[in-house]
Design a protein that fits this description.
single chain, elongated, 171 residues, mainly alpha
Length: 171
């Protein structure tokens, strides 16, 4: 994993090499180098370690995802703000099975830092609503469920939200 500034320097060097190839009348090489700059720029905004952790989490391999996330030693220095949000979001998803106190901290920090996709934000708020519900904080859970419902535009979480609202009525 490269530092975020090294990725930008690498992109600048590739663009400079591409322009140099254009001046040398090597048009094909120049086009290839300019296209090659999209990889470091993409990896600047989407960290490769976080992408690999998402893949492991998708396969329900929590240990593998934790190993990938543990490779990030200093998230504040290495990651962009949105990536820090996803770093905390992934930690919250993994810890939510065992430790609700830590999971709540991770989800709140992820929401504070920001998540790119509304669906991820809805899942984080849904998990926070579940934690609030387990601690008998009915008003907070209701607010979080309503926010999650607004963010869930494809109705993928509709069943979970309605189930949690029914459980809230019993409290």
């Amino acid at each position: 994993m490269f530092h975020k500034n090294i990725k930008l320097v690498l992109a600048a060097v590739l663009i400079a090499l591409g322009i140099w190839q254009f001046t040398e009348n090597n048009i094909g090489n120049g086009i290839f180098l300019i296209l090659l700059t999209f990889f470091p720029i993409f990896l600047y905004f989407k960290n490769e370690i976080i992408l690999l952790a998402f893949l492991k989490l998708r396969k329900q391999d929590f240990e593998g995802a934790k190993r990938w996330l543990d490779k990030i030693k200093n998230p504040e220095g290495v990651l962009v703000k949105k990536q820090q949000g996803y770093y905390n979001y992934l930690h919250g998803l993994m810890v939510s099975q065992t430790n609700l106190n830590q999971a709540e901290k991770f989800f709140k920090k992820a929401i504070e830092l920001g998540l790119s996709m509304d669906m991820d934000l809805a899942v984080a708020k849904l998990n926070l609503a579940g934690i609030a519900m387990s601690r008998r904080r009915k008003i907070e859970a209701t607010n979080l469920l309503n926010e999650a419902n607004k963010l869930d535009k494809q109705n993928m979480l509709k069943e979970q939200i309605t189930m949690m609202k029914q459980q809230l009525k019993k409290i």
